Fold this sequence. Notes:
Layout (H helix, E strand, L loop, with lengths): L1 H19 L14 E6 L2 E6 L2 E8 L2 E9 L7 E10 L2 E15 L3 E14 L4 E18 L7 E11 L1 E4 L5 E4 L4 E7 L4 E4 L11
Antiparallel strand pairs: 1-2, 2-3, 3-4, 5-6, 6-7, 7-8, 8-9, 10-11, 11-12, 12-13
Amino acid sequence: MKKVxxxxxxSLFCTFGYSQKKKPVAxxxxxxxxxxxxxxxxxxxxxAKDNFYLFFTVKTRKDTIRIKNVDPKKLPANGKIIPFTAxxxxxxxxxxxxxSVTETKLKKEEAVTTFTDVYDIHSKxxxxxxxxxxxxxxxxxxxxxxxxxxxxxxxLRKEGFEFSLAPTGDxxxxxxxxxxxxTYDAAEKKFVNAAPVKAAAKKK
Length: 204
């Protein structure tokens, strides 16, 4: 009888102890890492939580500039960060591309847009923005009214200005019809149109 009682008491303690154990907490899935689009020294351009950011460190202080919202279908790629100096001011040119494709039965367009922003990270200011889009077009064109004969035509369309950076820190924005040279105004903290160079006076 005593043995039976001891067994019952032991089983009760085991049941009680088991019920007191905490249920294991389900571990959360790993947090998705930021997508690093470009990085140089202490400056990086990264996609995080549907936004595109510029992360940087100035004198051990970490800071952020929000560049733009991100479309999951057109994630920034081919990033590049170029540090340069304009009129004694350290600046950063941040560039990246975004691609979109539009397709129908007869036509396909692939548009690649190259974005270039210039930042002063010390004042957290965006100094300049530029975008140029190059669209490759492939189109099936019928050569007769009954649409029995066709050919595929390839076209290339460019919109906006191509960005280029001079060793002096000046910026050139150029397309087929126009070229704009911009120089940095340190007092105004912005790029302005460069004054045209005057032709030398002719000797009499």
